[in-house]
């Protein structure tokens, strides 16, 4: 038996009983193993993060990036994401998928705000209760009609851009991306925007008439859906994909990126290094990478390894700008 809060609460008889034929929708399902030893009939995972969604689908779990229209369930589970706005949206959508009186279970770490969400949900749930373990909480209750409707699909914007709950820089244009956009020269040919988010950099890139094609690559389906609304240029192509593994249909003339450097709440410079390696693989021999990053992030060694020429551009106290040319798989180089 797994030692997750859900399985422990079930083992200890704390949870309500459900039929072993129960239809379950699970928002934010973290891994196939999360459902092991739990007597569910069918499980539908709602997972907008492509790498995780891919693992779930490979394990044979029916997986969607968003709740399908008309999806009904007997039991709904929400594993909390980092962002409260996304957590509230998921809770509202989970509740809407249930019949009146259906059971909603919410699980999360204290660092993800589970305690404050429990307080906010208690008055909206009937027969609510909770179980705390391992710096987190699992809580549950019966849903009533329309009690979470005010938490559904908030209209989030950054200027004239649509954003979305839980996406990077949801409430404003990221200053690092803005700095990079100002530094770009006239771009030409096929361009890739790795980690495109909701499309700020993509719109700036498409202002260059000589760009013939732009690939927007983004792992968060919610962010990519916003980008589709923000970018209507026919030169744009949208890819729900892990940028570190994605390959273009044809080699690119340029890659532009402000790579992420967090996995959950933990900083992970290795993620940015993987983006750099992916850019080198995607570029044509004459291609160039344009990169912005926080000053403290150690990307220079990876750039040295993957490119034959790296140029440090004028940045700010907070952010560094770099241009890398002549991609290669391994080796050393000089820097200017």
Give a short synopsis of this structure.
By secondary structure, this protein is an alpha/beta fold. The protein has helices at 5-11, 50-58, 84-96, 114-122, 175-183, 200-205, 221-230, 269-282, 300-306, and strands at residues 23-27, 42-46, 62-64, 75-79, 103-109, 125-133, 136-143, 157-158, 161-162, 189-194, 211-218, 236-240, 252-257, 262-263, 266-267, 283-294, 307-313, 319-327, 334-335. It comes from Meridianimarinicoccus marinus.
Task: Kindly list the characteristics that best describe this protein.
336 residues, alpha/beta, Rossmann fold, seven-stranded mixed sheet, 31% strand, Small_mtfrase_dom, methyltransferase activity, cytoplasm, Mtase_sm_N, rRNA processing
What does this structure look like?
By secondary structure, the chain is α/β, with parallel strands linked by helices. It folds into two domains: 147 residues, Rossmann fold (3-Layer(aba) Sandwich); 178 residues, Rossmann fold. It is 25% helix and 31% strand. The chain contains nine helices and 19 strands. An eight-stranded mixed beta sheet has the order 12-11-10-13-16-18-17-19, sandwiched between helices. The longest helix has 14 residues. It is elongated, with a radius of gyration of 22 Å. The chain starts with a helix and ends with a strand. The model has no long low-confidence stretch (mean pLDDT 93).
């Amino acid at each position: 038996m797994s030692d997750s809060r859900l399985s422990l609460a079930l083992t200890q008889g704390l949870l309500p009983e459900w039929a072993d034929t129960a239809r379950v929708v699970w928002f934010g399902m973290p891994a196939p193993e999360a459902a092991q030893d739990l007597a569910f009939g069918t499980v539908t995972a709602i997972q907008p993060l492509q790498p995780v969604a891919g693992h779930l689908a490979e394990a044979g779990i029916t997986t969607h990036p968003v709740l399908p229209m008309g999806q009904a369930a007997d039991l709904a589970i929400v594993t909390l994401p980092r962002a409260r706005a996304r957590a509230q949206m998921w809770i509202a959508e989970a509740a809407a998928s249930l019949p009146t009186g259906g059971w909603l279970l919410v699980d999360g770490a204290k660092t993800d705000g589970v305690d404050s969400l429990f307080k906010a949900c208690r008055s909206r749930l009937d027969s609510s209760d909770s179980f705390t373990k391992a710096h987190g909480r699992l809580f549950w209750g019966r849903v009533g009609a329309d009690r979470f409707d005010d938490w559904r699909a908030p209209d989030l914007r950054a200027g004239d851009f649509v954003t979305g709950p839980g996406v990077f820089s949801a409430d404003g244009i990221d200053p690092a991306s803005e700095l990079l956009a100002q530094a770009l020269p006239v771009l030409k040919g096929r361009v890739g925007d790795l980690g495109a988010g909701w499309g700020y950099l993509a719109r700036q890139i498409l202002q260059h008439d000589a760009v013939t094609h732009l690939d927007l690559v983004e792992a968060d389906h919610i962010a990519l859906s916003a980008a589709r609304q923000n970018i209507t240029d026919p030169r744009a192509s949208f890819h729900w994909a892990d940028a570190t593994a994605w390959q273009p249909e044809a080699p690119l003339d340029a890659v532009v990126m402000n790579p992420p450097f967090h996995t959950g709440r933990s900083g992970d410079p290795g993620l940015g290094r993987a983006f750099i390696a992916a850019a080198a693989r995607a570029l044509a021999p004459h291609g160039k990478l344009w990169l912005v990053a926080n000053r403290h992030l150690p990307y220079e060694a990876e750039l040295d390894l993957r490119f034959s020429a790296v140029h440090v551009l004028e940045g700010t106290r907070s952010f560094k700008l770099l241009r890398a040319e002549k991609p290669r798989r391994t080796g050393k180089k000089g820097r200017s």
